[in-house]
Amino acid sequence: MFYRSHLLFVVDDHSLGKGVKKVIKAIRDELAKNGLDNEVGVLETGTLGYISKGVHFIVYPDNLLYHDVTVEDVPFIVLEHFLKGRPVKKLCQEAKQEVDLAYSQRIVLKNSGKIDPESIDEYIAVDGYQSLGKALQMGKEAVLQEIKTSNLRGRGGAGFPTGVKLEMTAKQEEKQKYIVVNADEGEAGTFKDRLIMEGDPHKLLEGMTIAAFVAGADTGYIYIRGEYQLCISRLEKAIKQAKEYGLLGKDIFGSGFDFEVMVKVGAGAYICGEETALLNSLEGGRGNPRCKPPYPGVSGLWGKPTVVNNVETLSNLPAIIEKGGEWFASIGTPKSCGTKVYTILGDVNNPGLIEVPMGTTLSEIIFKYGGGLKEGEQFKAALVGGAAGMFLPKELLQIKLDFENLSKESAVLGSGAILILSERTNMLKVLRSILNFFLHESCGKCSPCRIGCKVLVNIVDKIVAGQADASDVQRLLSVSKVMQKTAFCALGQSPIMPIASMVKYFGDEIEKFIGEERKCK
Amino acid sequence: MTNFEKYLPKPENILQLLHLAQDANPLQYLSKDALMEVAEFLKMPYNQVYSVASFYSMFSLKLRGKFVIKVCLSPHCVVQGSDNLFDYLKKATKKMDEVSLEACQCLGVCGNAPVVLVNDKVYGNMTQEKLAGLVQNLKEGENVL
Prior knowledge:
Chain A is of the alpha/beta class. In chain A, 43% of the residues lie in helices and 16% in strands.
């Protein structure tokens, strides 16, 4: 059917919370009432990147973005805009795709907000699954070479080269190999993987199949957090559709390559984001981390070679195969290639999800894409990398966000969560919530982490209560340092990041809580 | 007997089975009987099932109320004042047997911070006034705002 206009509603967990389904129903009813249902199409898509615009939708071909729409606004919008052709100015703005959404630079989120994530046909219409076909024709070696040329590095935090990881597993002589997608996103303030999966689930499946082909795996698992209901249902639907089309299952594209995918649901444990803990959880045990080496690439799930990758990493693969590794390597900086998806939160005007090339400066992200700080607020710090990240002060605003430049400041890119804190923020409160988070999520396997987290929380509580002296601040540092050196996995090694940067850059804030007379003692 | 048949009796399915068993219980927890059922289905020792169930925070081994309220206490929500909301709820729901209050970590809906979860329903941009209304509705047995 031909429509003169299309409304693309963003349906993700943020807008669902604001009642997007009710608004969609109301607008459909209202259009039908005015006899416009044959002229104006209403579609549901994934995220555009905005998370604080309430219920929002884009009108094509007008390219207008309506935001914060409620059921009460619907009759007026339909009457004015679609019957009389006068856009309701107070509810809409022009969709400035170039700046706000940075669509031109998108790789992973290219289709999100444009296609219906629940329809495989729409994904195929935007060249979906073409790369898979191309990869199967190219053969394992050529695909691996292309991925190595692209210099793609893991987007889950550690930044390990993806090509090297795939090669390690591909070399193993075991017959049974697995591929596991780490979608157990629990880092505080991170929801990029959730929105990638909600916005374009087929892209993940395609990337995953390409990786499995290279590594020689015939079974794949997607381990998703139990709280991500919408992701789970959209992915399960996507898998079903792909199977019906023969894009998953036996003998894909007649190449003789078989691949099955299953969705596994977690049950609320941050530690399961650690790859070996995730494998234990997949096998049906407690999510305790394993000793490394052997690395999962050699001995992983049920002792078989297993590739464990992040959602965003795998979603990059289709574009690399389509346009070539050199094209990908030309984006970003020489050692950190491609784009990175960030979640910007806190006291900025446009909190949300952006995808920009590696090496974009922090100030550009805050002021250009994040829309600057809220009126009357001043920048104080940015917590980059989630709870296991680092506080960056004003002096480091010009820092380029990529693996190398951040590690120079002993910071990490982590999951790509950027929390912007304004002058008003009580930094100790933030630090306490971070340490409480680690305490809650520590799996209890090793003593440094199990006991250390509790000790750290106790010290910060003491500081907040005004009962601490300067030696307590030193103890905070030394305990976290010991944890960094002795803890079994990355969770226990992480608390030093926020603590050390807090003491280094915001030591005066802590000192405010330490009484003068106590300092003398 | 909970409907376990859609899963194969393999250890790898234990989390799904536990989810099923917990969802089937109106009191939203895993009773000893439920754990036994899972253990029998998987032919796994009871203590092993218990050990897995006790590890994950989405499972409760204690009796819970009809409504389980979770308040996100991650950095971003705390900056927006969720710790105060938690203290408020603690007082407001003290005498309500049908409500269990829990703290939780990031739910990934940070755009709507501070976030409160009641059973499976996410409520964003919460304030004390809104919570008061929600608690009133819960008293009347309705999970709406």
